[in-house]
């Protein structure tokens, strides 16, 4: 342990040497300090150091953040998903999907009529959680596949750490359990489902509400059957949702007056634009007319609806078709060229590239889903990718609060203090150490709860990035909260990732 000297008047106190030197009289007096006193003095010194540090500067909620270097001068073609990329939805859409899914559970699957009384809890779940279809648990994993204790729920009830360890025998989940095992002669299906898009949030709300109802009323249920029933109910109600939203877009879609300005900037700079979405034309058209104007299609060189991603990016033989918006059906003729002003249906990314010549790093595609939007186009086709993560605004605004900064900084320094003094094994030292650990646990839960009381931040567990973050950072070159944040950057801008500090590099409390 390094020596720490405190100067008070003419007295120097040397920790671990247990002597006090009175310089004026040059007399040495022997004085012994207890380990408890030494640890408390180290705590106070660290606390004062923390308070003397300046708090980190605010992060720009409209910033664009780089995972990989991206030079926009190389980009000639800009592609976009629609849902949660160009169109940002109000909480009313979550309530609508929840209510429609709940009704289908009754009508199609004969669930108890009492579930109609189960109201949606909009702040219960966050994107990026896993559902264990075998054990019926909703939980949060980090990038090392470790369970975040305190973020495991059965229904709406938290599951204790003791029960979690009893169920899983370990805090680390085997990768085959989470993602399936493709190495086996017959691929083993994963036992967990990753809920990685925002449409899954009301689905999780309905799933947990119904599970809680079954548990409280002592009704036996199979977790996988419940999951599939809820998933199918919510997904099958999407066509109903599309019609309701298209008839009243103002109630469900947030206005974005800068979106037209962004498209105009790209068009003025001779960039090509295309739209590939899983949503149907009438739904997209209603939203885009509200967001951009009735002439929104004039900005796009190619528009493809009902794309059925991720199959659009993985299949090679499904033909692209012309969609007749007046007859609301597709036309049977073979498509040999993609024309501006025509609406296309289904198809594959191979046909899109073959018919346009757009390929590789000249294409930048924006979407909200790390898998169905971004993974295949970057891994298989070399496109550049941008993720639109709506929750980023809430996350950054939370990071910017003074209380969060103070707690986060002190947590870092307290953890270092514990690490530096953990080898003291005297009983009184162990008592002090347990107090420090209790304070650390309290701080970690405080920091977690300000994002979401149940599951914390979308982007990190107590200290590691989440499973969702790992996928996002792997498949997205850049990410931001809204596509129009790019208006603050020129089309010759290069986004540079920050040089992160690796564990073996320079230490800092405030990295």
From TrEMBL:
<dbReference type="Pfam" id="PF05761">
    <property type="entry name" value="5_nucleotid"/>
</dbReference>
<protein>
    <recommendedName>
        <fullName>5'-nucleotidase domain-containing protein 3</fullName>
    </recommendedName>
</protein>
<comment type="similarity">
    <text>Belongs to the 5'(3')-deoxyribonucleotidase family.</text>
</comment>
<feature type="active site" description="Proton donor">
    <location>
        <position position="83"/>
    </location>
</feature>
<feature type="binding site">
    <location>
        <position position="81"/>
    </location>
    <ligand>
        <name>Mg(2+)</name>
    </ligand>
</feature>
<keyword id="KW-0479">Metal-binding</keyword>
<dbReference type="GO" id="GO:0008253">
    <property type="term" value="F:5'-nucleotidase activity"/>
</dbReference>
<dbReference type="InterPro" id="IPR016695">
    <property type="entry name" value="Pur_nucleotidase"/>
</dbReference>
<keyword id="KW-0460">Magnesium</keyword>
<keyword id="KW-0378">Hydrolase</keyword>
<feature type="binding site">
    <location>
        <position position="368"/>
    </location>
    <ligand>
        <name>Mg(2+)</name>
    </ligand>
</feature>
<feature type="binding site">
    <location>
        <position position="83"/>
    </location>
    <ligand>
        <name>GMP</name>
    </ligand>
</feature>
<dbReference type="InterPro" id="IPR036412">
    <property type="entry name" value="HAD-like_sf"/>
</dbReference>
<dbReference type="InterPro" id="IPR023214">
    <property type="entry name" value="HAD_sf"/>
</dbReference>
<dbReference type="InterPro" id="IPR008380">
    <property type="entry name" value="HAD-SF_hydro_IG_5-nucl"/>
</dbReference>
<dbReference type="GO" id="GO:0046872">
    <property type="term" value="F:metal ion binding"/>
</dbReference>
<feature type="active site" description="Nucleophile">
    <location>
        <position position="81"/>
    </location>
</feature>
């Amino acid at each position: 342990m390094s020596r720490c000297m405190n100067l008070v008047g003419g007295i120097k106190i040397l920790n671990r040497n247990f002597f006090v030197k009175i310089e004026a009289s040059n007399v040495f007096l022997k004085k012994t300090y207890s380990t408890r006193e030494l640890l408390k003095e180290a705590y106070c010194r660290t606390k004062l150091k923390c308070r003397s540090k300046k708090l980190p500067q605010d992060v720009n909620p409209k910033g664009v953040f780089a995972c990989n270097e991206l030079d926009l001068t190389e980009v000639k073609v800009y592609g976009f998903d629609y849902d949660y990329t160009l169109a940002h939805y109000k909480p009313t859409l979550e309530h609508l999907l929840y209510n429609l899914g709940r009704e289908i559970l009754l009508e199609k699957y004969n669930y108890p009529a009492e579930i109609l009384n189960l109201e949606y809890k909009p702040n219960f779940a966050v994107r990026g959680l896993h559902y264990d279809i075998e054990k019926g648990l909703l939980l949060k994993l980090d990038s090392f596949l470790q369970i975040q204790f305190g973020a495991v729920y059965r229904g709406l009830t938290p599951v204790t750490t003791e029960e979690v360890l009893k169920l899983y025998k370990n805090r680390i989940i085997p990768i085959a359990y989470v993602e399936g095992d493709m190495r086996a002669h017959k691929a083993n299906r994963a036992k967990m489902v990753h809920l990685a898009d925002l449409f899954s949030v009301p689905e999780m709300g309905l799933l947990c509400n119904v599970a809680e109802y079954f548990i409280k009323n002592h009704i036996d249920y199979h977790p996988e059957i419940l999951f599939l029933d809820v998933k199918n109910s919510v997904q099958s109600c999407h066509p109903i949702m599309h019609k309701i939203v298209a008839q009243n877009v103002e109630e469900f879609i947030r206005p974005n007056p800068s979106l037209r300005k962004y498209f105009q900037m790209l068009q003025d700079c001779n960039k090509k634009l295309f739209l590939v979405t899983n949503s149907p034309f009438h739904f997209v058209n209603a939203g885009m007319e509200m967001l951009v104007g009735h002439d929104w299609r004039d900005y796009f060189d190619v528009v493809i609806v009902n794309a059925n991603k991720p199959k659009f990016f993985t299949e090679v033989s499904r033909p692209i078709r012309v969609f007749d918006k007046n007859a609301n059906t597709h036309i049977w003729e073979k498509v040999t060229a993609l024309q501006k002003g025509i609406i296309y249906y289904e198809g594959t990314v191979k046909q899109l590239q073959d018919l346009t010549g757009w390929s590789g790093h000249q294409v930048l595609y924006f979407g909200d889903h790390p898998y169905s939007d971004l993974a295949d186009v970057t891994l298989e086709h070399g496109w550049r990718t941008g993720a639109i993560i709506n929750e980023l605004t809430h996350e950054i605004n939370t990071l910017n609060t003074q209380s969060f900064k103070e707690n986060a900084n002190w947590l870092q320094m307290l953890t270092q203090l514990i690490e530096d003094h953990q080898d003291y094994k005297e009983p009184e030292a162990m008592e002090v150490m347990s107090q420090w650990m209790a304070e650390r646990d309290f701080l970690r839960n405080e920091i977690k709860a300000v994002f979401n009381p149940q599951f914390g931040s979308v982007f990190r567990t107590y200290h590691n990035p989440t499973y969702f973050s790992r996928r996002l950072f792997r498949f997205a070159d850049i990410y931001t909260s809204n596509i129009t944040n790019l208006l603050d950057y020129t089309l010759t801008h290069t986004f540079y990732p920050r040089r992160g500090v690796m564990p073996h590099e320079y230490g800092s409390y405030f990295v």
